[in-house]
Design a protein that fits this description.
The chain has helices at about 5-15, 20, 65-75, 75-100, 140-205, 210-245, 250-260, 285-305, 350-415, 425-455, and strands at about 50, 105-115, 120-135, 275, 310-325, 330-345. The protein is of the alpha+beta class.
């Protein structure tokens, strides 16, 4: 055996034996427990019982909402971008898997030459294969595979996060639109009533039965009501345009579809079947993506540390060649195993160590971001629970106030017609009744929005084992590339 080859093989065997412990990998950080006590601090609706979150929008008593969400998901640029990120991550995973395997290239060559004018021309050709393989002494290639696999997992979780967020945005815009339409209906009814009062008051003032100041007050109230109708109409139009953007549907067609059930506020069926523990936060896709980012960053640290160690590569080739000259043909084969090459990093100005330090800092950043994401998730769930508890506690009072103010308006109108109450009294009673009816509508909208926020903060029904739609599973990576 070659004198130089033997020491090289011995050094490679020694390095391979210690490869498993040479590069420490930062510990992977699991998703932190959502709550140390396992209980929410805010009151739970329905005694802490929850329904299946998947497709939660179908639990609203509204036939249009599911179709709008389906249309939005089919046309969403954010979902299209998330799909592209999945495909890019999948391609990166395949490339990382390929780096762990030997590389084989085919080589072909042909030549025709003549050395001197009197000599016959000679033709030769060769066909061969070349192989190269970098032996993963310190686990750098395997760490790269783990990083790519975790980034694919994070990209898939990101797609689910975008889907849940989009569904919540559509549902919130739709509920806000229905609430706005209900408020607009109240404003239109109030404006019509004030117009009638102003007209009758003008007639009475012209006949000398009513003071001119009362007529001016009635006209001012009518003008104010008309202005409020225009303001409310503009708000409703703005919400429709938001739904046009989300669903990518033509506005005339969308308006026609929405006109089927205007002013009707959809209400959630509620959370009614299973317990609502803090562990449900682990179903949030954004937390899964943040956890995958930590795992990928840990693997990147291992890859960077492996770059500081020696590298061992192996090559070989096989070639079949033929030569024809002066009518005589010869052929043969040549093969070679080696060289087995060991490269030792000696001096690079500190670039490898700097790259490792950068990856370690990225790992610390990913850990900090995951912790922040968990805290934010807790706050979002608690906030939604507080909103639900608040709307439930206010419901009886708000409804009672609307009923009583409506009765007061009816009585004041009767007294005003009989001359026992002034027009100012009537306008005050009308304003109180309008505000009370608006408060009921706003409470219904706020409660529906709180349910949507709760569904969203609990992950919208996504689970870590939920597969990506089949359309995204084309050309999957080989099983060996999976973590």
């Amino acid at each position: 055996m070659n004198r130089l080859l033997l020491p090289t093989l011995l050094a490679a065997a020694t390095l391979a034996g210690c490869a498993s412990t040479a590069v420490p990998v930062p510990p992977a950080l699991a998703v932190p427990v959502a709550s140390d006590t396992g209980a929410w601090q805010a009151p739970l609706p329905h005694g802490g019982r929850t329904a299946e979150l998947a497709g939660w929008w179908r639990g609203f008593d509204d036939p249009l909402l599911p179709g709008l969400i389906d249309a939005a998901q089919a046309a969403s640029p954010s979902l299209a971008s998330a799909r592209a990120r999945i495909e890019r991550a999948r391609a990166t995973l395949v490339a990382s898997d390929a780096m762990a395997r030997p590389r084989l290239d085919g080589v072909a060559a042909a030549q025709r030459a003549r050395s001197v004018p009197e000599a016959p021309a000679a033709s030769n050709g060769a066909l061969g294969v070349q192989a190269a393989w970098e032996i993963d002494l310190f686990g750098g290639v395997a760490a790269g595979q783990r990083a790519s696999a975790q980034r694919l997992r994070g990209a898939e979780a990101g797609w689910h996060e975008a889907r849940v967020s989009l569904a919540a945005d559509v549902a919130t815009a739709y509920v806000s639109l229905r609430g706005c339409e209900a408020q607009l209906q109240q404003a239109q009814a109030d404006a019509a009533s004030r117009e009638t009062t102003a007209r009758l008051t003008d007639q009475s003032a012209a006949a000398g039965f009513t003071a001119p100041a009362d007529a001016a007050l009635a006209r001012a109230g009518a003008a104010q009501a008309r202005s409020q109708v225009r303001v409310q109409q503009a708000q409703c139009d703005t919400l429709i345009k938001a739904l046009v953007e989300l669903t990518d549907r033509p506005e005339p067609a969308l308006r026609q579809q929405l006109a089927v059930a205007t002013t009707r506020l959809p209400q959630a069926a509620g959370l009614t079947t299973v317990a609502l523990p803090a562990q449900l936060l682990q179903q949030r896709p954004d937390l899964a993506a943040a956890s995958a980012a930590v795992e990928a960053a840990a693997a990147d640290v291992a890859t960077a540390r492996a770059e500081e160690r020696p590298r061992l590569s192996f090559a070989g080739w096989l070639q079949l060649s033929g030569l024809r000259s002066a009518g005589v043909s010869t052929s043969g084969g040549i093969w070679s195993i080696g060289p087995l090459q060991l490269s030792l990093p000696l001096f690079d100005g500190g670039s490898r160590r700097a790259a490792t330090a950068a990856q370690e800092a990225a790992y610390s950043e990913a850990v900090a971001q995951l912790k922040g994401s968990v805290r934010r998730a807790l706050r979002e769930v608690e906030t939604a629970l507080v909103a639900l508890d608040s709307t439930a506690a206010r419901e009886l009072d708000v409804t009672a106030a609307a009923t009583d103010f409506e009765a007061s308006l009816t009585a004041t109108a009767a007294r005003q017609r009989s001359g026992l109450a002034s027009l100012l009294d009537l306008e005050a009673a009308r304003r109180n009744a309008l505000l009370a009816r608006g408060a009921v509508i706003e409470l219904q909208r706020e409660r529906a929005a709180a349910w949507i926020a709760l569904y969203r903060s609990l992950g919208g029904g996504w689970t870590p084992t939920e597969p990506v739609p089949a359309a995204l599973n084309q050309n999957p990576p080989t099983p060996s590339a999976r973590p």
